[in-house]
UniProtKB/TrEMBL annotation:
It comes from Oriolus oriolus (Eurasian golden oriole). Belongs to the SLC41A transporter family. GO terms for cellular component: plasma membrane. Residues 141-275, 355-498 form the SLC41A/MgtE integral membrane domain. This is Solute carrier family 41 member. Gene3D superfamilies: SLC41 divalent cation transporters, integral membrane domain. One of its GO terms (molecular function) is monoatomic cation transmembrane transporter activity. The chain crosses the membrane at residues 104-124, 182-204, 216-243, 255-275, 287-307, 319-339, 411-429, 441-461, 481-506. Its main location: membrane. Keywords: Ion transport, Magnesium, Membrane, Transmembrane, Transmembrane helix, Transport. InterPro entries: SLC41_membr_dom, SLC41_membr_dom_sf, SLC41A1-3. One of its GO terms (biological process) is metal ion transport.
Length: 515
């Protein structure tokens, strides 16, 4: 057929008019697959008028920057200008460094004070009988605190992305996302909590060669109960935060993940300490209590599995989301092994109170960055796409921290929060007389060096990992944050232990560490 398609003007849903020409028919990646000119010809070969409708419910079919909140307010004006865009699409995240820092600062400080409180709790409970005689509980600490990061922060990132691209706009969609995701994290919490207890038993048995079945069951019951209850409470808080952020005109990516950690470390550590202490007290007189507690929470698994399978939004994660949380749990357990071997050493006195702080701050900051990059990529397509806005998969440190794009800008802002944030947290710990370390200048220098190096490494890894997973057709919301928070635990604990060791070596000359 040699006749040309007649150019038509079609009204958009927002009142704008688009011309339809043969070369442009649905050619944009935001509008779906390309349509051939013959698809718009009538029976007699003449052109027909085609009405192009844009659906806000389709994550790829709209200009998603309408759903992203800029400078604390929602804006739909980008619909009116989308037809005037050139070949280079504008960045969907039009936030200044000031607006990013302003939105992140309060949740960051709130999360930091939560980790300080967790550190103070750990500094107290390390002297309890259950921590003295069942030392493997220390191995559970980073694993379960990391599990909070692996599940709650992943939940926060997943829901933030869904909220930003308009998948939680109606009550039906909102309820569907809530029920499916809550059931999913209960499944993951129960299974990973059980595996964490096994890892704690193995890591505790390897160095000493001592194994106690009663202690193993105690660890299992404490871990599963803590993971289940903490995930239930924090999941509900997380959903409320994201819904509230949307109503207040705040980008959920900037506040959801830090607030997920603000009470997370404290709640999780308090639950672990209280549950393990209570079960330890019942160990001799009522030995059957521990296996009953473990069996009860495991018996609830089929209920959560059925609910999660019925939801299309969580069905895929239920089948494919295990690898990151399990591997992350193993990585965090190695950090727990370091903590177990150092917390009772007088040369590392005070390390217990600082470990949750340095790990929590690093995990919170990198989770914010990973969530932002993931949202940025979701606005350009689906996992597996290679949008023009995505950088190369092996970025240089300069492109990660010093380029002009919005993700580099947010990385600089988050990195600059490390020193002032930790100074506030160190002062708080010192004023509350936490730990057994004198805050001398040399200690602060070594501590800040470890904290800065940890966050620097994590932000760079996040930039590489999120884009690498995107190119491998993996959703970064589900896969990146577990690895990053676990690496934060391992790197933070390792660098902190190294700093304490160096300070011990020079302590008799330049520092009062260990007094």
């Amino acid at each position: 057929m040699t006749s040309k398609l007649e150019q038509k003007e079609t009204p958009q849903a927002n009142g704008a008019v688009l011309p339809i020409v043969p070369g442009d028919c649905l050619a944009s990646p935001e509008r779906g697959q390309r349509a051939e000119p013959t698809d718009f010809l009538g029976p007699d070969g003449t052109g027909v008028e085609v009405v192009v409708l844009e659906s806000r419910a389709n994550a790829k079919g709209v200009r998603e920057e309408d759903a992203l909140l800029e400078n604390g307010s929602q804006s739909n004006e980008s619909d009116d200008t989308s037809t005037d865009r050139g070949p280079e699409p504008a960045s969907p995240l039009k936030e200044t460094s000031f607006s990013i820092g302003l939105q992140v600062l309060f949740p960051f400080l709130l999360a930091g004070f939560g980790t300080v409180a967790a550190g103070m709790v750990l500094d107290i409970v390390q002297h309890w009988d259950v921590f003295k005689y069942v030392t493997e509980v220390f191995i559970l600490v980073p694993a379960l605190l990391g599990l909070k990061g692996n599940l709650e922060m992943t939940l926060a990132s997943r829901l933030s992305t869904a909220a930003n691209i308009g998948q939680m706009d109606t009550p039906k969609e909102l309820w569907k996302m809530i029920t499916g995701n809550m059931a999913l994290i209960q499944v993951q919490a129960t299974v990973v909590g059980f595996l964490a207890s096994i890892a704690a038993v193995v890591f505790g048995w390897i160095p000493d060669g001592h194994f106690s079945i009663d202690h193993a069951v105690l660890l299992c019951a404490s871990s599963v109960a803590t993971a289940f209850i903490a995930s239930l409470v924090l999941g509900m808080i997380m959903i409320g935060v994201i819904i509230g952020s949307r109503k207040m005109g705040i980008n959920p990516d900037n506040v959801a993940t830090p607030i997920a950690a603000s009470l997370g470390d404290l709640i999780t550590l308090a639950l672990l300490s209280g549950i393990s202490w209570g079960l330890y007290k019942e160990l001799e007189s009522k030995a059957y209590v521990n296996p009953l507690v473990c069996a009860f929470f495991i018996s609830l698994l089929p209920i959560w599995i059925v609910i999660a399978k019925r939801n299309s939004a969580t069905r895929e994660v239920l089948y494919s989301g295990w690898e990151p949380v399990i591997i992350a749990m193993a990585i965090s357990s190695v950090g727990g092994l370091i903590l177990d071997r150092t917390v009772s050493d007088p040369n590392f006195a005070g390390m217990a109170v600082f470990t949750p702080v340095i790990n929590g701050v690093g995990g919170n900051l990198v989770a914010v960055q990973a969530s932002r990059i993931s949202t940025y990529l979701h606005m350009s397509g689906v996992p597996g796409d290679s949008p023009e806005t995505a950088p190369r998969r092996c970025p240089s440190p300069c492109s990660t921290f010093f380029s002009s794009d919005v993700n580099s800008r947010s990385a600089r802002v988050l990195f600059l929060l490390v020193v002032p944030g930790h100074l506030v947290f160190l002062y708080t710990i010192s004023s509350m007389q936490g730990g057994h370390t004198t805050l001398t200048l040399i200690f602060i220098v070594f501590y800040m060096t470890a904290a800065l190096l940890q966050v620097l490494i994590l932000l760079y890894i996040a930039d590489w990992m999120v884009h690498w997973m995107w190119g491998r057709d993996l959703d970064p919301d589900n896969f990146s944050i577990p690895y990053l928070t676990a690496l934060g635990d391992l790197i933070g604990t390792g660098l902190l232990a190294l700093s304490f060791h160096v300070l011990w070596l020079i302590g008799d000359r330049d520092s009062d560490v260990g007094d």
